[in-house]
Amino acid sequence: MSSFTSLNPQSAAWLPQETSVSSNESESPYNERAFSPPQAGAGLPSSHSCHSASALLSPSTSGRLSYVGSVSGTMKSPDYTRLGTLTEPRNFAPQTSGLSAAVTSEPPPKFDLSLATGVRKNDTVSTNAQTIVHTPYYPPGTDHDIGSTAIVPFADHRHVLPHSQIRNLRSDTLNHLTATESGLPALHNALDPQYFPFLEGARQAVATNHGVVKLKNIPFATKRSEVIAFLGRNSKILNDADEPVHIIMERVTSKTMDAYVEFVTLDDANKAVEKHQQNILSGRVSRLGDRPVEVELSSQESLMKDLFPLAKGIMWNGASPQFKPLNPNEPWENFKGFVSEEEMIMLVKHVEVPHRSPFSKDCPQRPYECLISTLKKFPWYVTDRITISQRHAVFKATCELARLLSRSIQKQDDQVNLTHQLYRRLIATAMKCPGFTPLMKDDISYLANLSDMEERRYNQPRFASCWRHQYSLAPKPGMPLDVIEWYIAMIREQTHRDMVARPHVGRTILLEKSEETDMYWGYFWAEVGYMFGPAFDQMTLSQAAHAEFTAVERILARALTPQ
């Protein structure tokens, strides 16, 4: 028998081949093995030599793992028992990551360092002062770019759109902002209110002075629909989306008090009162159910005072609070908040334990309506008087009541009073609440299972669940989403560069903390420097806004030129 080894052009691996086999050599051990070439395009198979210390299995050999033996961590050939007899020579061919190794006459491609570093040319924007590497953000649950994370990187065959097509996909606002040679605006343009996409969320609330009518001596089980029907559909009451009916309930005892109804103007409210006074003069007593009801013209001051009875140390001027000076001799009369945490806890307890609240038991929808009125009329615009802990108490009660109402509807506890309409009213009021952060609204959206399009109607940004350290910042209404994400990308990239420039000890501490939080905003949380604890709980929304907007301006000042 005469045999020699030849190079298989499809695998670029040395395999033993037979040239001629005589009849008397049919018992040759080579007949017991089939050296069939690998399939076309299968890539390089690993060496089956028993002397190979480590073998990288290619896709073509992954289906034959059951035939590969292993002794002391060494990969063996199928006939590894015949050591030194049937092994092919050591494979010195370069190992690739699954790419075809067909032999061609073309020269090899030029060596590109960008493949080894995971940075592509189109990801770099060069300026006179610095080079900015755009690091794409991968939201939770998505696959990362294999081409930039593999040990042996794959070739990047993704199509890169021309610059003109990219600008066509952007909004006009972002194109105007980045219409410079470097693609980066000047600092004064980036901070211009025309482009700056953030604002203080709680400041979106405004005091309203609508006309108010008060209904006294109403039955404690009065429904909202009965109040509207009592005043008449022709009355110019505020739109249903504005929640014009406020049935006052004591949050501690759940006792129903009076009802207030808001009208478009003061004249409309006055006409509604005159109508019922004429009915009394003509001998027709106004009744709600079987009880005579008094109808009188009221004001926003009376409504706010009854809706927030424990707010001490203030005087209401319309819907705006006027704070009295601190009185050290009577500290119980000083302002401590519009609502207390105990009130919010009791509001939830009336629903969780209804048999201990006789009034709430007979009128199960009242705690939910009380919360809707509280969220709607809460003076969120007074940010220097509302603390982080007070807002959290209101938000926690909102989430608990939304969860309890959803469960009651599913169990059909009360199909007359606990309805889907009440649930939609509660969710809509919470999503429109200007005092809640985007992250808080994202939690409510998750409880209500809202779609992305429904979230957009409430001015929610993309990846709202990643706004974890923004206690005051909120997206500006009407601002394109790509502008918001462009600013966040600038903050993320600049804070990453700042982190790398820190000393080793400080950089290590930040890296350890970053593993415990979301990095969509980069190291923005390190720039703000919140100190969590009692001091943070007592921090006002105004102080949080000052810290966050100052941090954004500092970061943009380092990332952009001041021209």
Care to describe what's here?
This protein has 563 residues and is α+β, with helices and mostly antiparallel strands. Among the domains are: 172-205 and 481-562, no CATH class; 211-433, RRM (RNA recognition motif) domain (Alpha-Beta Plaits, 2-Layer Sandwich). Helix content is 35%, strand content 12%. The chain has 19 helices and 16 strands. The protein has helices spanning 113-117, 163-169, 172-177, 187-190, 224-231, 266-281, 300-307, 341-352, 358-362, 366-377, 388-411, 420-432, 438-448, 452-457, 481-500, 504-514, 524-528, 534-537, 541-559; strands at 2-7, 14-20, 70-71, 74-75, 124-126, 131-133, 198-200, 211-216, 245-249, 256-263, 287-288, 291-292, 294-298, 314-317, 320-323, 473-475. InterPro entries: ESRP, Nucleotide-bd_a/b_plait_sf, RBD_domain_sf. Residues 1-29, 93-103 have a biased composition (Polar residues). This is RNA recognition, RNP-1.
